[in-house]
Specification:
With about 160 residues, the protein is an alpha+beta fold. The protein has helices spanning about 10-15, 35-40, 75-80, 90-100, 145; strands at about 20-25, 50-55, 60-65, 70, 85-90, 115-120, 130, 135-140, 155, 160. The chain has one domain: YbaK protein.
């Protein structure tokens, strides 16, 4: 990226570690939903992931990445992180907790690291897309490169359904 002002915490973190990634800017489009973003980028929606932040019954926070054409299965997700139950955090809590706004939340470069789980379907792709840290920006990178900047595990955490989340 040429413009310094465009760099988000996510991009700075990746550059600092000298990782291989590509930035896709769709800020000129009016794509709002994850499915619209995938369509705009001409990508399989199964390769484009949304970042969801949750809170467990224990008050612990967790980050989940699921394809934009699927939903986070709260029961599967809770079991994966050994919680009785989890729920999405309120939108107003996202910025103070992560440093990111709703629609621009990246798993990379959050204020604090939270246990992170990526839907196992990500393994079927050489590279996946996820938010670059602001609305209108996607990062494309391999899981092996992503693992050099954040710790995560893969699990079956999604289900079919409307991609409203």
């Amino acid at each position: 990226m040429k413009n310094k002002e465009e760099k988000t915490n996510a991009i700075r973190s990746l550059e600092q570690k000298k990782l291989q990634f590509q930035v896709h800017d769709y800020s000129q489009s009016d794509a709002l939903s994850g499915l619209e973003v995938a369509d705009y980028l001409g990508e399989n929606p199964g390769r484009v992931f949304k970042t969801l932040v949750t809170v467990g019954k224990s008050a612990g926070h967790y980050v989940f990445l699921v394809p934009v054409n699927r939903e986070l299965d709260l029961k599967k997700a809770a079991k994966t992180v050994n919680e009785k139950s989890i729920e999405m955090i309120k939108a107003k809590e996202l910025l103070p907790l992560t440093g990111y706004i709703h629609g621009g939340c990246s798993p990379v470069g959050m204020k604090k690291f939270f246990p992170t789980v990526i839907d196992a379907s990500a393994e079927t792709f050489g590279e996946i897309f996820f938010s670059g840290g602001k609305i209108g920006l996607q990062i494309e990178m391999s899981l092996s490169e992503l693992q050099k900047v954040i710790t995560f595990r893969l699990a079956d955490i999604s289900s079919e359904g409307s991609a409203a989340l």
